[in-house]
Amino acid sequence: MNYVFTECTAQILILGNSRAQHHYDTQIITDSTRMSCFNAGQDGGHSIFLPYAQVEVILKRYAPRIIILEFDPASVECHSEDYEKLSILLPYYSIYPDLRPLIRKRSWFEEEKHLSAIYPFNSNLVNILRYNTNSNAARKKDLNGYLPMNDRVIDKNYLKQSSVQPNKVSDFDTNKLTALKNIIQLCQQHNVFLLIANSPKFSYHLENQHSLSVPERHSLAIIHHEKVIFLDFSNDPVFAGRTDLFADRNHLNLKGATYYSAVIAGWIKKNSTVFFHHS
Question: 188-201 pLDDT, tens per residue?
């Protein structure tokens, strides 16, 4: 987070949750496109709020040529825990005033809580101690932000026990839709080419595809209205039934991420005139 906010100058920047962090091999993308690439994805099941905060801060310092946003249109559903996860931004409350309105959505008393200099770090004490010791055992080896999953293969017995259920009727979170709009508008204002992608999820060949939920329809309406390119690989037939490419239902393993990263890099290379003209 600190590096991305203060030092990163990569030409291609990847944003999103754990699916971003584990699915986009920066070296493969750099080798194919000849552009520097950094993966700023973050484990922890974060919502669109985190990429929005990152874009808000980063674009005031520098403009990447391309931002790849890993985004599932269904993820704008209402979930109160997504506001709790804004705790990752608490240490930056005093540093970046532009983030304060977003952080204040965490609770009614965030402003008062920040009168304490200790409060922003309460939820991070374990990690602070872990990553500021001399032991390298606590540090994960990353490749320009990319953290590959291991070569674990999805458990077929688990899949049988946890078949995908049809989408329940759920409401959408207007704050999340606003965050999506803001990301798009900030990229437009800073002349950054925004590519939104929904990476593969495991499914069988014969699985019936569900109809779009209300949250999905609202997300896609914004993306299409703003004429942003959206690559949806979530149910791509190339990945269907390929248990050898997945660590679990929602995450590609090392082999799967290698394959998928090559697909994304190939798309960027093939369509380079789109974003070169854009910039």
Answer: 999 999 999 999 99
Q: Supply the pTM of this predicted model.
A: 0.87
Question: Distance (Å, rounded) from C-alpha 218 to C-alpha 216?
Answer: 5
pLDDT tens digit string along 156-185?
766 665 555 555 557 899 999 999 999 999
Cβ atoms 89, 102 nearer than 8 A:
yes
Range among 49-58, 89-98, 160-169 rated most confident: 49-58
Q: Where are the alpha helices (DSSP H) in the chain?
A: 2-6, 18-23, 26-33, 49-58, 81-84, 100-103, 110-113, 125-131, 156-161, 174-189, 214-225, 254-270, 272-278
Structure tokens at 114: 């920040």
Rounded to whole angstroms, the Cα distance separating 269 from 34 reads 9
Given CA atoms 181, 187, 188, 190 in this order, what sign does their dihedral have? positive
Residue 67's beta-bridge partner residues?
Answer: 13, 194
Domains and CATH numbers, the chain: 2-278 (3.40.50.1110)
What CA–CA distances, in Å, run from 186 to 13, 55, 63, 95, 272? 14, 8, 10, 20, 21
